[in-house]
Amino acid sequence: MYPHSSESLIKKAREIQESELQKFYSKVVKLLQGKEVGHETVDSLQRLNFILSATKYTRTLPSELQKRLESLLSSPVEQLQVLSSAVLRETLPPSGQEVNYNQDISSPLNSHSAALLLSQ
């Protein structure tokens, strides 16, 4: 179905240990705290999305990471909007809870934010 190398990557993502994942979460939070978002940040967000989407069950993100990703939804950089929206969709809270997305009422929702809110 998938090439062997792709299957290997998916298997590795599914078998990631919780301790490794927590370290990776911390790394992503540190990268998102920087003033400028660089290639390493984008790469880490892509990896995080891959890991979360390859997992068979929904994971819960640390609250600090959740907040940072929510703030990226209003980023002027569309790539960051797309990646943060994709990660947040993979980790939506259980039914009855909401993503705490506070956007200025005067600014319209971008399509990625709207898709995330509709998927709740």
Summarize the helix and strand pattern as letters.
HHHHHH
Summarize the biggest pleated sheet. Answer: none
Individual helix count? 6
Rounded average pLDDT: 79
Distance between the termini: 31 Å
**Poorly predicted runs:** 103-107
Rg from alpha-carbon coordinates:
15 Å
Name the shape in a single word. Answer: globular
Could you give the count of β-strands?
0
Beta-strand content: under 5%
The secondary structure category is: mainly alpha
Helical proportion, percent range: 55-70%
What would you note in describing this structure?
This protein has 120 residues and is mostly helical. The protein is globular, with a radius of gyration of 15 Å. It has helices at 4-14, 18-33, 39-54, 63-72, 78-90, 111-118. Mean pLDDT is 79; it is low at 103-107. It contains six helices and no strands. The termini are far apart. Helix 3 packs parallel to helix 5 (78-90).
